[in-house]
Amino acid sequence: MSWHLKEKAQALLAEEQGTVRKDWGGRVAFGLVYPNSYAVGMSNLGFQTIYRHLNALPGVVCERVFLPDPEDVTELRRTGGVPFSLESQRPLTDFHMLGFSVTYEGDYINVLRLLTLAGIPLRAAMRRPHDPLVLMGGVCAFSNPEPMAPFMDVIAVGEGEELVVELIERYRGGDGDRETLLDALAAVEGIYVPERYAVAGAPGGGLAAVTPRAGAPAIVTKRRLKNVNAFETIATVKTPSAEYGHMALLEVGKGCGRGCRFCLEGQVYRPVRHRSLDALRETVAQLAKSGETRIGLVGACVSDYPWIGDLLKIVEENGLEVSISSIRADSLTDGLVEALARGGHRTLTVAPEAGTERLRRVIRKAITDEQIVAACDLVRAHGIPNLKTYFMIGQPTETREDVEAIPALAELMLERLRVPDPSGKPFGRL
Ligand code: SF4
User: Fold this and answer.
1) CATH architecture of 3-212
2) 268-308: per-residue pLDDT in tens?
3) Residue 94 Cβ contacting ligand 1 at under 6 Å
4) How many angstroms is it from 315 CA to the middle of ligand 1?
5) Could you tell me if the CB of 328 is within 6 A of ligand 1?
6) d(CA 264, CA 259)
7) Cα distance between residue 194 and residue 212, in whole Å
8) Gap from CA of 367 to ligand 1 centroid (Å)
9) Which of 19, 53, 141, 309 has the largest CB neighbor count within 10 A?
10) Beta carbon of 8 within 6 Å of any ligand 1 atom
11) Which of 139, 260, 326 to mutate to test the pocket of ligand 1 (most atoms within 8 A of CB)?
12) What is the DSSP string of 281-303?
């Protein structure tokens, strides 16, 4: 193994708080792989949640693996090394299971790069009994798994909190035979075992038929967490290398009821499920007790959380500062912005997505210009110095007028923002 890469891994570990280290003896070794850089993976709450849940199981040791940086791939090739886990720096082939957590379709190619670098056969059909079982989870596994089907032994379709537990149970309950295990897994709701389906192509392209083999369901049903209060979704490991690495992230629920046409999160995490205020109260108190000073509330649309005012009060009562990942301009209220300002919020983010109201209606994000401008006024009225906005271009039915309306709207917003706040402080940045 390259000493340089080992030192690099140890430097990352030295910066972390909350790393889980477990002895491997007698445990199922699960390599949790994020097919992108350390910084991107560690900013992903879903990845962190699965790491936490797997390590909470006494019979499992879960270690993280990331895509090596480009210069590290060169180093691996130079030294004849292979990618390894962060915690114990073991090669991927030492693990019983490798679970790829895939958030972006652009990372599909990185999954294949990692398998190749690790010396694991790319195609599931070519794997040998001693190879790790290769799994895919994450939002791509339930939005578009099929491109990865030839390379995966198992695809976890849906929310992973319960699924990983059942997966481990089946693995531990098996006799070590790979085929028997795949049969057992194919019968679990939400588990897709691509090898258990015969796919017939149609002349000229496309699919003629997909036929399940014995024991596999004709349709794999997406798994949804029924009781979101049963599982805490919080970041386990804090690191300054991650986006939001300086705060404790806490998910307030899953799904969004708004149904904007372009939004994957609003589609695949349906139905919307909110964690109860009591469950969040308990978690916030625990985080405060453990010495956290700032909390990041995360969810598809946090400002739609029905008890957001009460939740912000709880955060404040626990002496924590607060940050919110996503706010809709049409659900901003005076009380909400005031509470965010009191909680130390320095930048508020809203996403108009399009420059004109017409295009916003087309994409089903029907926020009006008036609501956007009102959001600017609220920001200044409560002394929040910065506002961040998101716009997209290249949307269906878009015209030149829609695109030109983006800078025009930004100008209008700036006019409202460039005023001193009640204490006389100037506006920061849009
Ligand atoms: S409100 Fe936000 S999270 Fe909800 S569907 Fe629209 S873009 Fe997605």
Assistant:
1) 3-Layer(aba) Sandwich (3.40)
2) 998 999 999 999 999 999 999 999 999 999 998 898 999 99
3) no
4) 24
5) yes
6) 9
7) 9
8) 12
9) 141
10) no
11) 260
12) HHHHHHHHHTT--EEEEESTTGG
- DSSP assignment, residue 276? P
Torsion angle, alpha carbons of 31, 34, 286, 306, to 10: -130
User: What are the domain boundaries of the chain?
Assistant: 3-212, 228-417
Q: Tokens 């849009």 identify what position?
A: 430
Residue whose C-alpha is closest to residue 125's, from 167, 99, 153, 146: 153
Express each pLDDT in 81-120 by its tens digit. Answer: 999 999 999 999 999 999 999 999 999 999 999 999 999 9
CA-263 nearest atom, ligand 1: 8
Q: Whose CA is nearest to atom 1 of ligand 1?
A: 258
The CA-CA-CA angle for residues 360, 361, 364, to 5°, reads 90
Residue 271: burial class (beta carbons within 10 Å; 0-12, 13-18, 19+): exposed
Architecture of domain 228-417: Alpha-Beta Barrel (3.20)
**Going by CA atoms, what residue is nearest to atom 2 of ligand 1?**
301
CA dist 199 and 127 (Å) reads 20
Does the pLDDT value for residue 53 go beyond 80?
Answer: yes
Q: Which residues of 392-430 are buried (b: 16+ CB within 10 A; e: fewer)?
A: beebeebeeebbebbeebbeebeebbeeebeeeeebeee
Q: Are 420 and 381 in contact (CB under 8 A)?
A: no
